[in-house]
Amino acid sequence: MIRDYSQRLVVQEVAPRDGLQIEQKWVETDDKIALIDNLSACGFTRIEAGSFVSPKAIPALRDGDEVFHRIGRRPGVIYVALIPNVKGAERALAAHADELNLVMSASETHNRANMRMSCEQSLAGFGDIVRLVAGSGASLNATVATAFGCPFEGRIDEDRVASIVDTYREMGMQGITLADTTGMANPRQVARIVERVLGRIPAEALTLHFHNTRGLGLANVLAAYEAGARRFDASLGGLGGCPFAPGASGNICTEDLVAMCEELSIPTGIDLLKLIELSRTLPALVGHDVPGQVAKAGRNCDLHPVPAYVRTI
Amino acid sequence: MIRDYSQRLVVQEVAPRDGLQIEQKWVETDDKIALIDNLSACGFTRIEAGSFVSPKAIPALRDGDEVFHRIGRRPGVIYVALIPNVKGAERALAAHADELNLVMSASETHNRANMRMSCEQSLAGFGDIVRLVAGSGASLNATVATAFGCPFEGRIDEDRVASIVDTYREMGMQGITLADTTGMANPRQVARIVERVLGRIPAEALTLHFHNTRGLGLANVLAAYEAGARRFDASLGGLGGCPFAPGASGNICTEDLVAMCEELSIPTGIDLLKLIELSRTLPALVGHDVPGQVAKAGRNCDLHPVPAYVRTI
Q: Range of B70's domain?
């Protein structure tokens, strides 16, 4: 089977938002800004840099306004903000976020548990946000959370996922993310859904957001890439977790993803060595070990010295 | 792209050998026997149950003779022993191992570092073992270690791997394992090498042994399966490590592999629920957390209770 691995894979780094949002230890604003600036120096073209959610709901990211104002805006980098509602969109626009990311779950139960509103209410809010953002110069991305499975409802009807994609496009969303929020996707399902959605929207408008909760994160990336997807969320060090799987991994790890791409000769434009160095600063920043593997094991090309006794055999 | 996932995938469980061999804490002989017997009750048809290596080299497995004598032999299960030399083969036959697994690295440097002999010396020893085992009723499997990369030499010439496979077959080895000893394989390389080797030997004679050192373990399994491979080593809980990657995972995790197969509808014959229960006993047995993800996260079908507040929205 001949497969083409020559097309660029765009990595959107989400550690500053999806990674830091669940950390117990407060990460200083200066440290957040340094992390984002160090990430943009690694070659990312898209960074989810923070969220404009209620500080009561996500205290770890309550300094989003200051972070967005003080980061060094590198030309060509799109700085994305996650927003839950119109108020968040107003804050994000005031902080000059380049793109706003809205989230609704394909699962009605999960949307009520996570966003504390029905899907109908979510979509009504999205309409208000579309009208607010129109003409601002910022672009809009909308995420279908639990697109590959819900921890409350189980399997998600693929017709429903396709229908939400259509609704998002009709509302004027430039980008759409399919998120495997709690790591329930498998490569076969991923290939099927990606092929279906790419019949509706162009590859440059689609992002895949995988978690490694059950060990399938990179296998799912590869299945999606082989089905035509080109843009993926990933988190430095695999930072970020899943409240339904204590001890298991959360987001797929950026440097593990980039290392895989290097081995497969898939271009990413990201400096893997710099990325690994940056990832190795994370345990000190967040106060615990992180799940990423390549920062521990090194790249394949980082060879080990030959033991002295070998020369005597 | 239509892919066929209907063919059975055979999992050879290696935790009692590859997993336990590097554990610092002594695991009691009774506990090893209980582990193996509990594994055979999960539906495995192949278990690498121990090794007959010098007790100085691998003290953790010095009770191999007693383990092999006292396990409950379940009909249909092949109990494999790893052996390094003729003396080990004599012990394995005396202990009624069903199959003997021999190891040589494709990398000359790694073979000298790991086996403390040259590849030429290894092959000469294999010849002696083949003569010893002939007529005993036991079968022979030979492993090509570092088949996908060497931590000292880097990339391994694929012609060399193919040539070792030919040599093994000419010597009379019934089975051959290609081992990614330190987790350097990638799915593209795996597909290429598996396709090449399956031009030389039938699928039922080939085992793939992957490590998850850089997060690609299950992606490599899937690439190998799609290329026609049908037999895979895996270790309960992901037990086992890599001395060159402290903190990174070692062997791929059995229950993560079986869970992937269930999601893909690939038959394995293994009881996943029993397997997860057994994996959850490992931290107490070895005295530390293990890398497997599914034992922490649960199966996809293990749904979570809906929070009470959801009903009020």
A: 10-312
